[in-house]
Design a protein that fits this description.
The chain is of the alpha+beta class. Helices cover 70% and strands 6% of the residues. It folds into two domains: 189 residues, no CATH class; 198 residues, no CATH class. It contains 17 helices and four strands. A four-stranded antiparallel β-sheet has the order 2-1-4-3. A hairpin with a 4-residue loop joins strand 3 and strand 4. It is elongated and about 110 Å long.
Amino acid sequence: MDVDFSGLLPKTLNELSDHFTTYVDLYIKPIQSYKKAFSQRKNSLNYVSLHAIYYTLLLLLLVFDIQLIIKVVLAEVVLTIIPVVYILLPFILFTKILKKNKNWFNLFRLLLIIKLQNAPIIVLLAVFAKKFEVNSAYILMDNWIIITMILDIITVPIIINNIKLWQRFVWILANYLSLIVSLIIFGIVFSNIDIPEKLTKKLSLVSPSNEYYQAMYADSLSMYNFRDDRYMAIIDKRTGFLRNTQFVTFDLNLILHTRALNQNVEQVIILDSLMTQQNPRRKRESHKYVKVKEDLDVNLRALDTLKSIFNAKVNYDKDRFKIQKDSLQFKMNRDFALLRYNYWVHMDSMYTDWDQVKKISRTNKIGYSVNLDSNKIAIVFNLDSIPAYKQKQIILDKKKEISNFLDRSSFLEDIFLYPLFTVFDFIDI
């Protein structure tokens, strides 16, 4: 059925039925629809344009903003040139070898009709998922985007007439390789360009998985970088007053513990020497005690520097999660940001709330102590880590839930674009 723009506004039920049939055929007779868009006939452009109008009307039903919708549809049409570029070289090569009278504009119309066929499905899934907070719809949406990419590379070899099966297979393989190579080139080019964050968000399709990667990927500080079962207080030995408290990272704990062991060895050697002086017949045992090599000199200045760096990272993450728990678009990500924020608030308060500091020093056992200089001593407490552990476990459970969601969302992407990700990992993009 050839469709004319003169009948765009239906005047009768028959004309309305014709429009409905034309639109539905895109889904129940996809091959026939693809061939119409791909053909050399004059009405092929009208056919694709008509479906662009259908898509515009659908979007207007969802968001009644004519100017915005027109901009969106025009952007979708223009951006179709990107997948055309990806597979243009194999298209030119195979149409020339197989003597098919097709040009790049035929390919453009075909890829556009594929987009107009699948974009409404993706949009409706996104609207449904957001309105009813159904994450499984986002999973289907993310995978449907990859289905559209697959259709882009397989459709031309499938619908073109009078070519052998092996030629179709080779053409599809050439399209796939061309797509992967093009994406690698784009990835390398854009990795060296500083793209503004606002522009990146506008160009990327917003979904829970995309938002999660953008919001959570660059954590400045892992909650595993420090010992939540250790707590350090620096005391002025002359006055007995607390100078400051400090996070104990794994590295710092190792350094302090090494220093404590060495100081104990020094005391044992001194004691052994004194005992030997009092009893000359006694055999000296000090040769059995060996000091451990210290990788870093521990002093007040070094500790203050470490504290300053670590606290800056903690405050950065705490402030970032404070914003994200309210500003992120998807509930799954907001809930996760809230858990992270509460964790850092809890940990930070242990070092800044004076009542908690006094409680910790009174109710927890001392693990070891280190003389920093003649006046200062660092006391490391064995802290009850159960409260922090419980919060951390809740975060880990939530992260596991999100990871399962991300794995399902990227199921087809991980398979289809595996060579691309392998190359990116190799060249560290």
